[in-house]
Amino acid sequence: MNAIFITVRTRSTRLSHKCLLTIEGSLAIEHIIERAKRTKADKVVLCTTALYEDMVLVDIAEKHGILSYRGPIEDKLVRWQKAAERYEVDFFVTFDGDDVLCDPELANLAFDQHERTGADFIEAPNVPCGAFTYGISVSALNKVCKIKWTEDTEMMVPWFTNLGVFKCEELQNVPVVLQRPEIRMTMDYRDDLEFFRRVYGYFGDRDFKLEDVIKYLDENPEVREINNHCQEKYLTNQRILTKKALTYPDTY
After folding, report:
1. How far apart are CA 124 and CA 211, in angstroms?
2. Is 204 in contact with 24 (CB distance < 8 Å)?
3. Residue 237: which of 117, 154, 134 has the closest Cα?
4. How many CB atoms lie within 10 A of CB 69?
């Protein structure tokens, strides 16, 4: 059984309640849910925290006909683990709550690749930031949850890639037109919100693809420039958090 896990919570530091901000008449999280439903996943599960403030996300999931799971506040890995156990999932692709243009077709490539190669962990460094997050086998996730030494697992990639025990692969068969890592499509800052509002304002209710978005951005470079400057801040923050996550505690 495979699934899309939408990883989201209302609490955010850089852009407050970003998943509940409105983009072209719908909440950001609603756009993500609709894109997840366009994949060939057996199930779509919204994975959030047990905090009372995140009940609003559970209500939104129910409204849109998808499943939900509420788990640990900080430990994203255990949240996924328990959701996979509850819904009998063997492999999942994550859609983050700030990736409003997460791509269904790339997710489908990951499902196919896992079935073909048995990959434990799939990432796609050569696509736009926010178009694809990760594909993860639950068997690998269970092993990581046994050996990790922290509950702060926001930066979880090294647990899969640095141990040398999992089959880690880059996403295969990605069309050349989608190999555009310089394009930023994630929402951490106010300029990112403006970027998404411009993109969705152009496409409206049309059933558009990632290829269509890239073509639009190439034809309208001023839209790409709205949030392009945010990427270095984002990457710097990611590096700091990753280094912190890998610090072995003296008390362990």
Report:
1. 16
2. yes
3. 154
4. 21
- Which residue(s) pair with 71 in the sheet? 49
Amino acid 248: pLDDT: 44
Confidence at 40, pLDDT banded by 50, 70, 90:
very high
Residues ≥6 apart with Cβ < 8 Å to 225: none
CATH of 2-245, one of 3.90.550.10, 3.40.190.10, 3.40.50.720, 3.10.20.580: 3.90.550.10
Q: Rounded CA gap, 206 and 57, in Å? A: 25
The β-bridge relationship of strands 67-71 and 43-49 is: parallel
User: For residues 35 and 103, is the Cβ–Cβ distance under 8 A?
Assistant: yes
Tens-place pLDDT, residues 106-147: 999 999 999 999 999 999 999 999 999 999 999 999 999 998
pTM above 0.70, yes or no: yes
pLDDT of residue 32: 97
- Give 120's Cβ-side CA count (13 Å radius): 16
